[in-house]
Amino acid sequence: MAPTSDASAELLSLRKSIDNIDAALIHLLAERFKCTQTVGRLKAAHQLPAADPERERRQIDRLRGIAEESELDPAFAEKWFNFVVAEVIHHHERIAGESEGTR
Ligand SMILES: C=C(O[C@@H]1C=C(C(=O)O)C=C[C@H]1O)C(=O)O
């Protein structure tokens, strides 16, 4: 069944907001990765481990709390965080490998 024109207008308006939110998320992720790349270089320069499980645990606790307050599924928040951190750790390992080659 074709949507009514009211439903089409509402869908269009909601999708405009979704487009803005998706763009904001990409901008935020780009800024986050700029920070973590700098952390990776700092760790490599001082021969610190790529991963910091204690920091990750604290951040997961914090983010799960924020997710609950914001009515976002805390399990999803944790899954998102772990997904991003896995990528960050790959970057850190790559940076450490490159800096080993120059020592
Ligand atoms: C960015 C860091 O490196 C890793 C990545 C983290 C993250 O992306 O939040 C947190 C801890 C570390 O496993 C850090 O130690 O702060």
TrEMBL record:
MF annotations from Gene Ontology: chorismate mutase activity
GO BP terms, alphabetized: chorismate metabolic process; salicylic acid biosynthetic process
Pfam family, one: CM_2
Every Chorismate mutase domain range: 5-96
Lineage: superkingdom: Bacteria
EC number: 5.4.99.5
SMART domains per UniProt: CM_2
Enzyme class: isomerase
UniProt xrefs under InterPro entries: Chorismate_II_sf, Chorismate_mutase-related, CM_bact, CM_dom_sf, CM_II_prokaryot
Keyword terms, alphabetized: Isomerase
Xref: PANTHER family: CHORISMATE MUTASE (PTHR38041)
Protein name: Chorismate mutase
Organism: Mycetocola reblochoni
